[in-house]
Amino acid sequence: MDRRRRASSTVDLRELECFLALAEELHFGRAGERLYVSQSRVSQLLRRLEGRVGARLVDRTSRRVALTPLGERFLARLRPAYAALGAAVEDARDAARGIRGVLRVGFQGTADAYVTGAVRTFRNSHPDCAIELVELPLSDPFGALRRGGCDAAIVLLPVREPDLVLGPVFSRRPQTLAVSVRHPFARRASLPAEDLADCPLVTVAGPAPAYWREAQSPSSTPAGRPIPPGPAVTTLQEGLTLTATGRAAMLLCRPTADYHGRHDIAHLPVSGLPPSALALTWPRNTETARLRAFADVLAEAAKDT
Q1: What is the pLDDT of residue 4?
Q2: Residue 197: is its pLDDT beyond 60?
Q3: Do residues 270 and 233 share a domain?
Q4: What is the CATH number of the domain that holds 253?
Q5: Residue 184 DSSP symbol
Q6: How far apart are CA 188 and CA 256, in angstroms?
Q7: 87-96, 131-140, 235-244, 283-292: the lowest-pLDDT one
């Protein structure tokens, strides 16, 4: 009896891969295509997994496929565990062969000279490892990390996500306000933060967390005066376009303001606000030798900023 019980609870990676694919596709046929197996094989693997669990993980009707509440909880636990398993294999492979392969790094808005310089330093030190830079939407700084679209991401602070590691922090810079050259503020040399109460600010749309959106577009001044909310955007370019047309102003870090200099937008230093900063972040339990090496390069470069 004990032997049969142990056999029934043994983890089968193929079953777990099947469940993950099905949870993302919510379609047996598409899940099978991803795994290069038939639809009936997907059903068989799912039934075996549900047999091990002792309950249904997926509800299937003629019209839809959906996870059960237990399936949702199981998915939330399985995703990071499966990612950690893959990272462990990659880490062992890196240790055996040296730093090689591909590291995908996401960035928001602009990969400035600091980031590209760190990439060059890394590639000079590890010529067998390529870095792919992936642009992230302004409105979704953490989504690609959780979906596996990148291994790490360079994002604006703050980062308060319990499932993410906060790595090296760098590029602390004063904030600037981007306004249309026709805006009354455009004639000023600088701006105290309290004057933001007289200027609608471009806001960031979801799915970025509320605390993160508030940091990029505060709803009140340091003294508590309300700041009018402007239009919500999903990308930096949308925000700059709205700013140029005079619909709202937009807070930017200094490097981004310098990079996106244009004749129809003026940039004013803002006093009284915390500086902006960037950080490298990645999902917990997915750290590899490649990622550690790149984080070390950023941390070393940060000493000079």
Answers
A1: 47
A2: yes
A3: yes
A4: 3.40.190.10
A5: G
A6: 20
A7: 87-96
